[in-house]
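NmrA-like family protein: structure tokens wanted.
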Amino acid sequence: MVARTVALPEAFAGVDRMYLAPVLETVTEVVRLAREAGVRHIVDLSGDETTDWQPIARAVEGSGLAWTHLYAGEFVENTMVWADQVRTVGEVCEPYPDAANAPVAMVDDPQVATTTVEDVTGEPATTFEQWAAANADAFR
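Answer:
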């Protein structure tokens, strides 16, 4: 994630394409610096209009550069909210247990930008119920 932008002009030198996972407070500046440095294509971690991450998509779209949005369905790290549920009641309380997804670790996002989720995780999309059942011991 990019929170401090002072070193970016030098870091962007010679970069044609970039992966962007910014903090909301600096996204406009990061995109501006990328454009000024000659970056031609940005792949960003953002979200659609229903998410808090929409400002990233808007900043990238408004840059005049080529872009690709990566809307993550679920991060592995987010499943830690289930740990207390599993320890306390022995189950995961999820409103849509049959919704299929392929959780990805945040550290893998840049790789996801260039490959399919199955290539990264080695697993096809699973429902929350299937994933929780397979990983429940990690929460105990």
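Residues 1-71 form a domain with the Rossmann fold fold (CATH 3.40.50.720). The mean pLDDT is 79.

Cheers.
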